[in-house]
């Protein structure tokens, strides 16, 4: 389990809570001995709830980051705010033994549940919407989408009225297929034209076998402005950062993919085999959607899944430094 994260700003805290399914924030003060001592609580808890890349802890010194404390209405130190899937689900203010015990039990239960779900997803088992997959896993390989460093992903030319880059890696069933009406768009669309450029850095060195793309544009043949599914996609491996569109147009790709109507399943997913020998030691992937399969000026992506094997963790330094532009 990684060390507790130190939070520098409200925006950084929001990024962290969105990046990890389970996230606990401790508000304390370096000036208060009792408050400072209790910050060891998450470190002790982490020894019994080891859920890699799903459960994380952070701390906020209210004397330094009062604006963050005010945002979460913290009136007592220490205080504990527990996030699940980016939303506050519990809060304990002050050293209340009974409430802290209950919070610990809840976190351990949620963490074990997350671990079970991850195991089910990796083995290809289960069909619930919480672990939805639009295509079968290739035999012998697992879903390694969780190895993507969400907080460092970058998506260029995305329509701001659609979803953020994180919805692409959401494990839930797309709202278009679930039958219910989404409260917010859980897909992304291109903005000024049909091209998209997605940079995905990884936490481990990966062996990539298959790329699964789900695209569910509205089925209205009379709407010329309706977004399209992607047709031509260029993949670039091991780039230190995102590419520019002109740069990617001229650069030789690791693999170029041409999709047709027959490649899409009934649930709108294309399962694309990669040239495995070229994707053996991959630390990042740039996906360039060159064009769509029609005459519209927009392309739509609902979900992305990476299938393969995860190797050794990369040496990225302390988690506290994530986002400073270094690796």
Write the layout of secondary structure elements.
Blueprint: E1 5-6, H1 10-19, E2 22-28, H2 33-37, H3 41-46, E3 55-61, H4 66-71, E4 79-84, E5 87-93, H5 97-123, E6 142-143, E7 154-156, H6 175-178, E8 188-189, E9 196-214, E10 230-237, H7 245-250, E11 255-258, E12 269-273, E13 282-292, E14 300-301, E15 303-313
Parallel strand pairs: 1-3, 2-3
Antiparallel strand pairs: 2-4, 4-5, 6-15, 7-9, 8-14, 9-12, 9-13, 9-15, 10-11, 10-13
Domain PITH: 136-322
Domain Thioredoxin: 17-105
Protein name: PITH domain-containing protein
Q: What does this 3D model show about the protein?
A:
The chain has 2 domains: 5-123, 3-Layer(aba) Sandwich (Glutaredoxin), CATH 3.40.30; 130-313, Jelly Rolls. The chain has 7 helices and 15 strands. It has helices at 10-19, 33-37, 41-46, 66-71, 97-123, 175-178, 245-250, and strands at residues 5-6, 22-28, 55-61, 79-84, 87-93, 142-143, 154-156, 188-189, 196-214, 230-237, 255-258, 269-273, 282-292, 300-301, 303-313. The strands form 3 sheets. Strands 6, 7, 9, 10, 11, 12, 13 and 15 form an 8-stranded antiparallel sheet that branches. The two termini are 19 Å apart. Residues 118-130 and 316-327 have low confidence and may be disordered.
């Amino acid at each position: 389990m990684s060390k507790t994260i130190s939070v520098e700003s409200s925006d950084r805290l929001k990024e962290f809570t969105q990046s990890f399914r389970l996230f606990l924030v401790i508000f304390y003060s370096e000036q208060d001995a009792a408050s400072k001592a209790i910050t060891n609580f998450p470190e002790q808890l982490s020894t019994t709830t080891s859920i890699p890349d799903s459960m994380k802890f952070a701390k906020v010194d209210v004397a330094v980051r009062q604006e963050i404390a005010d945002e979460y209405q913290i009136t007592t130190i220490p205080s504990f705010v527990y996030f699940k899937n980016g939303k506050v689900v519990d809060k304990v203010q002050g050293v209340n033994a009974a409430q802290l015990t209950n919070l610990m039990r809840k976190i351990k239960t949620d963490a074990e549940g997350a671990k079970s779900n991850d195991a089910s997803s990796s083995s290809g088992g289960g069909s619930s919407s919480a672990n939805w997959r639009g295509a079968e896993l290739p035999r012998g390989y697992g879903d390694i989408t969780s190895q993507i460093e969400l907080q460092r992903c970058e998506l260029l030319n995305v329509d701001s009225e659609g979803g953020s880059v994180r919805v692409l890696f959401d494990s839930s069933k797309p709202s278009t297929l679930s039958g219910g009406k989404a409260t917010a768009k859980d897909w992304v669309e291109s903005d000024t034209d049909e091209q998209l450029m997605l940079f995905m850095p990884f936490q481990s060195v990966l062996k990539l076998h298959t790329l699964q793309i789900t695209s569910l544009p509205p089925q209205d043949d009379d709407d010329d402005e309706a977004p399209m599914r992607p047709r031509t996609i260029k993949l670039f491996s091991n780039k230190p950062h995102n590419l520019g569109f002109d740069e990617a147009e001229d650069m030789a790709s690791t693999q170029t993919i041409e999709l047709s109507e027959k490649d899409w399943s009934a649930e709108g997913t294309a399962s694309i085999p990669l040239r495995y020998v070229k994707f053996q030691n991959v630390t990042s992937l740039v996906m360039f959607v060159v064009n769509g399969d029609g005459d519209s000026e927009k392309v739509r992506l609902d979900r992305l899944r990476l299938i393969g094997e995860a190797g050794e963790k990369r040496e990225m330094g302390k988690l506290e430094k994530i986002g400073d532009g270094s690796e």
